[in-house]
Amino acid sequence: MSLLRQSFSKYNRATRILSRQRTPLSIIQSYQRPRFASNIPSQSVPPNQIIGKPPKNILIVNKLRTQPVILAIDAFLEHVHSTYPGVRVFHEDRSDIPHGAEVWKPGSPEKIDLVVTLGGDGTILHASSLFSTGAVPPVLSFSMGTLGFLLPFHMDDFDKALESVFSGKATILNRMRLACTVYDKDLSKKAKDGDDWQVMNEIALHRGGSPHLNTIDIFVDGQHLTEAVSDGLIVSTPTGSTAYSLSAGGPIVHPSLSALVLTPICPRSLSFRPLVFPSSSIVTLRIGDRSRAPAGISMDGRSSTILSPGESVVIQASPFPVPCINRSSIITTSDAEQMRHSEGAGPGKEDDWVRDINNLLQYNATFRSKALLRYSRT
Fold it and tell me: What are the boundaries of the signal sequence (predicted)?
């Protein structure tokens, strides 16, 4: 048995040496230099931060205008114009802009104070992408889609939700974003990807239509972590930890934390497990020179570019999170009185995330097969 251990020890030592040799020293040293201005806070903003001034400009972001969405937008606009006169309502520049809303484009001079989304989780991701170069206004999200993990409000409660915002009672949870920059072999920004991407859920490198696995070198703060041979890699935010990363076996992370989650996609090594890094870390993913396949990049479900061997993407926490308004902002007096006499969190302190992982993810639910129950003899 001792000879077997010695042989494995020699093999592992040789593997580590070869791994270092495959990554040129100049490449490792280049990733030790800071790639961005490091002014990112190490901790997130407290989740119960209160919105200050009432909004003057509201931006509506909605999914495709089905009949329910059309009726919801019309009711929303009528309520805003009658209850909050003087408030301007904007809509992104699309062919289906609703009557009573002004046209808005990213970079417009009008400062948006509140973003209202009507749709699913993808609608919030789209709203985040509209503010990819700077701060995001507070986001008030209403569920009108197929998935509602980021959607604390039902459309029937839009008047209560707006009242909490205008009266200064709304609390927000700052959901972290990732800043991503793509580099070519010479460590210059790729021309069409010159601007940093701001990602709310995740960035995924994948082999796409290639039959071969990707070979990707992973650097953390300039230090070579490992060479990953897999279908791809996912770097997600805590918000994105319940999306693609979760399906690939990653951990569930509370959104009030600031962290980067690294999750492999079908790795060749069974010991390659997901990792969680602090938000101060800089993660670099470089396509290995020996990789038999390029890697496609998708950011929040949007295709970005193709990375060839030698090209890389640098990922770190963005200084511009997405401030999402909590459902606890619309707790009424009667609700608060009832909650005082029951177990659980006090009024205004309940966690939307706890409710969501139980209701939407069925966290720790017992497995029950409907087919087995249907044909069971007992």
Answer: none
Tell me what percent of the residues of the chain surpass a pLDDT of 90. 51
pLDDT value at 167 more than 50: yes
Q: What is d(CA 302, CA 5) in angstroms, rounded to the nearest whole number? A: 47
The yes-or-no verdict on residue 256 having pLDDT over 60 is: yes
Q: Give residue 349's region: left, alpha or beta (phi > 0; psi -120 to 50).
A: alpha
* CA 217 – CA 223 distance, rounded (Å): 10
Strand bridging mode 282-287 / 295-299 = unpaired
Cβ(170)–Cβ(329) under 8 Å?
Answer: yes
Q: Are 203 and 298 a contacting pair, CB within 8 Å?
A: yes
Catalytic positions are 121
Q: Which of 205, 231, 203, 194 is nearest to 299 (CA)?
A: 203
Token pair listed for 323: 């401030």
pLDDT tens profile 276-323: 999 999 999 999 999 988 999 999 988 778 999 999 999 999 999 999
Between the CA of residue 9 and those of 2, 19, 81, 229, what are the distances in Å? 10, 15, 73, 21
Q: What is the pTM of this model?
A: 0.80
> Angle at CA 255, nearest 5°, toward 57 and 205?
95
Q: Which three-class secondary structure state does DSSP give residue 298?
A: strand
Segment (H or E) for 20: helix 2-22
Domains and CATH numbers, the chain: 57-175+323-361 (3.40.50.10330), 177-319 (2.60.200.30)
pLDDT for 372: 60
Length of the chain equals 378
Compute the CA torsion angle 46, 47, 48, 52 (nearest 10 deg). Answer: 80
Instruction: Write the burial class of residue 252 (CB in 10 Å: 0-12 exposed, 13-18 middle, 19+ buried).
Output: middle
CA 206 to chain centre: 18
Half-sphere exposure of residue 150, counting CA atoms within 13 Å on the CB side? Answer: 32
Does the pLDDT of residue 345 top 90, yes or no? no
* Helix axis angle, 158-166 to 67-83, nearest 10°: 40
